[in-house]
Amino acid sequence: MSMFRVLDISSAGLSVEQARLEAASSNLANANTTRSASGAMYQPVTVVVGSQVVERALGMIQKPVVVDVVPTNAEPRMVYEPGHPDANEKGFVTKPGVDTLSTMMDLMSISRSYEANLRVFDITRTLLQKTLEVGSRS
Amino acid sequence: MGSLNASVVESISRELDVCAMKHEAYSANIANANVAGYERVEVSSSANTAQLSAPAAQLLHTHDAVKLDQEMAKLSSNAVRYEMLLTAYQQTAGILNLAIKEGRGA
Amino acid sequence: MTVTSIVPVSVANISASQMSSNEIASTQIAGAAPNAIFDTLLDHLQNVNTQLVNTDKAVQQLASGETDNLHQVMISMEQTRLAFDLVLQVRNKVMDAYQEIMRMQV
After folding, report:
1. C45-81 pLDDT, tens per residue?
2. How many helices (H) and strands (E) does chain A have?
3. A1–C74: do the CB atoms touch at under 8 Å?
4. How many other CB atoms sit within 10 Å of the CB of residue B35?
């Protein structure tokens, strides 16, 4: 059963990476917006990931869990675009405080983690199948 | 008659236990790699020889963060070892079966 | 040269008091040999039965989700099967031998 627990742990990892992916891609996509449908500005979000002890596992085994998706409260950026309809009197437009470069780096790490968890899942499945084949003869 | 290959099977079975535990530890490390402040766990090396009567005691908390590539490499080689042990058992059982059936097959 | 004659030894010449208790016991066991084989067989059958019961328990635990080790269950299933096979074959051989003896013309 510990193998089945591993499947559970890996899939938890996949879910977490997926949530982070959604947050990162949402931030990137909305990086250059100036207002939303309700008039307020886009608030970049970040995913808070915690660890949860896996039940009936060896004591210290934990799996990652999405605790919350919260706004980052990052300072909005001021970009100089005088012709923009939302520019202020000095010609600066307020845009969401998204650091595109570091978000792109995040995407790379998310992708690596996702692939790693996927490989673990695959390997575990293979090991389980091999275990079930013990005793069967061709 | 118990089992003619009992001692071999006993040691293979114990090694498999250790491999399964290690697999769980490595997988958890990889899954939790991006959790802030997570410290990797590992199976103590004395688990190879000791009786696994208290499996929880064999799990160590290190104070290192997870290095994804290293963890992945450890998991892969451990998985190969697991398969190797399974194969070793199947061969032993196969030979015993051959002896019992006097070579007349399954 | 003189050839010393060989005095024929018969059981009558040896008094019971000269026999050690071991010798007495061994002649008794020699006389009871066929039963000993069946007893041994029964003994081993008991062992196999115990193994079967334990394996059954292990499979039940697996079904109810309590167990930690799938590989343990698989290995013990295979071991039990081999042990049972062995006892079966030995039993067949013993039966064959018995029947052959019964067929012998007296």
Report:
1. 899 999 999 999 999 988 888 777 889 899 999 999 9
2. 2, 4
3. no
4. 19
Both structure tokens of C100: 């052959």
Subunits with at least 3 CB pairs below 8 A relative to chain A?
A: B, C
Taking only the tens place, the pLDDT of each residue in B18-45 is: 899 999 999 999 999 988 888 999 888 7
Residue B14 per-residue DSSP state: H
Sequential DSSP letters for B62-87: -S----HHHHHHHHHHHHHHHHHHHH
Interface of B with A in 77-106 (CB under 8 A): 79, 82-83, 86, 89-90, 93-94, 97, 106
What is the pTM (predicted TM-score) of this model? 0.80
For the stretch A31-48, what's the b/e string if a residue is b when 16 or more beta carbons lie within 10 angstroms of its beta carbon? beebeeeeeebbbbbbbe
Q: Using CB atoms, pick whichever of C48, C71, C82 lies closest to residue B20.
A: C71
